[in-house]
Amino acid sequence: MFKWIRNFVMPAIIGLLLFESFRYNYWLLALLAIALFYRRLIDNPIKNRLIITFAFAMGFFIPHLWWVSVLGVDAALLLCALCTASFILIALIPIKSGSFSSKLEFATAWALIELIRSQYPWGGFSWGLLGYSQTSGPLVQYARIGNFALVAFVVVLVATLISDLKLFRNLRAHFVALVLVLAGLFFPTASQSGVLNVGVVQGGVVSAQVPEFARADQVLFHHLQQTVQHANELRNADVVMWPENAVNLQLDPLGTEARIQAAVDEVGKPFLIGAVRDGADGHPENVVTLWLPQSGEKTSYVKNHLVPFGEYIPLRNLLASHFGRLDQIPSDFVPGQGGGVIDVAGAKVGVAICFEVSDQLHLTNLVQGGAELFFAASNNATYLGTAQPIQQFEISRFSAIAHQRTMVVATTTGISGVISANGEVSNRVLEDNGQVFVAKVGLSQNRSFTDKHPLATYLFIAGLILMLGLRRVRINSAKSSVDSPTQ
Predict the structure, then answer these.
(1) Averaged pLDDT for residues 192-220
(2) Dist CA 197 CA 138 (whole Å)
(3) For the chain, which end, N or C, has fewer CB atoms within 10 Å of the first or last residue's CB respectively?
């Protein structure tokens, strides 16, 4: 009984502790959770490590990703299981007491897992990455050098270095941990190359009593209403931003365009508008389009990174016959191919739609394309009342810091706001509310190391894997030589 508590219940509680660090943005709590998890693995056989790791990962992912249950409890549990499976790599590493190389291997494995999870399968699922728990602490600044993978490596390494409770017997390890933490305080603040007055319209919640077929028009009505009512305020903006899915151009496109044009002309400023429209082949596209006074729609960005099982169905022919709910997405969205930087009001705005705020390669491409400001257009109405909007907003904070760009977030139902390149939040609009604000935001042309050299993190992790792998081969070879009988 005690063994079951030690190897399963306690690690699950530690995983829950890590979840709480994300939930309340307590960066130190994440360090504590990882340190406790690491101690559980020390000098344990692989069978115990597998059980401990499984319990820890599920203890974290189930509460962290439970918002997916609005689509079905089975969907949430399956996603949690897939995320947990990636942690098997950690369980395979033998952790030796007092071994610095074990700490390096543990931190490297964690960073590698996050790199894999961020890209595979189907473009990856970058939720629950360790860096997102660090947005209020000094260690997040390492994102400017090596993005989320380097932050994960440093956070885990610091946690393992402080995991030994014998404080005065491990002064060197604790000193290294302290230096890594303090170094994050000395990164220079982001520099500005200019400012832009940005208006944001959050339409607000559509009543649940509105029938499904009328909801898209009601969303549009809310954004038009907010825009017209606050036209005087929005005239102080250089550009006005509407969120993802604020407009459905598939239904009565001519009438919808006329209503939008009237609102844009009323304000007299360029708009960036999130919309759904039919592409050239008849399949839907998720876009942000530039709409100008008097002249209408000009240029658009088509979302590159579509959400699997949200905007398209992977393996549709195989899965559709077994899961009737997939019929809710009768037609797959078509992804865009690159782009995303829109010239408006004398500034270059890089667009990320919904989950793309977690796609660091997309954001790097925007910076390399000249983006001076990020615009995150999102629609979180499906997950209203869950932890998803808050989690996504913290991901946006992380991305703003990593790429040293102000992030303007516009959502249909919340959370909207402005995140500076240093991670400071202003003009935050909470869920449920319909609201408009105009904010003066900073533009930036400098590039962080992670944007100048996006492959550097991969090379760093690969170098660590090679170095640690060769070291383990040498140790095993030396051990085999000692154990072999003398001829």
Answers:
(1) 81
(2) 29
(3) C
